[in-house]
Amino acid sequence: REEDSVAAEAAAAAAALVTSSAYYSTSAPKAELLIKMKDMQEQSVEPESEEELEEENDTELANKKVMHLYSAH
């Protein structure tokens, strides 16, 4: 029936709006976090020793894990 079709379209449109607003409300904080992380990496000084290089690699690995967790949601 035409009424069922219209109702289904309205429900789909409402679901799309809810999904997109939820997407944008979580995407903005993610983008801010990414920008902050990138800025922090750019501000970090060049490592002078192997120990500092190792710490930097640990930080990069931690950042990748955080990014993976965010992208999974």
TrEMBL record:
Q: Which GO terms describe its molecular function?
A: actin filament binding
Domain ASD2 positions: 7-66
Q: Where is this region: Disordered?
A: 40-73
Q: What is its main location?
A: cytoplasm
* Compartments (UniProt record): Cytoplasm, Cytoskeleton
Q: Which Pfam families match?
A: ASD2
Where is composition skewed (Acidic residues) in this entry?
Answer: 45-59
Query: Biological process (GO) annotations?
Result: actin filament organization
Q: What GO cellular component is one of the record's annotations?
A: cortical actin cytoskeleton
Key words of the record:
Cytoplasm, Cytoskeleton
- Family according to the record: Belongs to the shroom family.
UniProt name for this protein: Protein Shroom2 isoform X3
Provide the taxonomic classification.
Answer: Eukaryota, Metazoa, Chordata, Craniata, Vertebrata
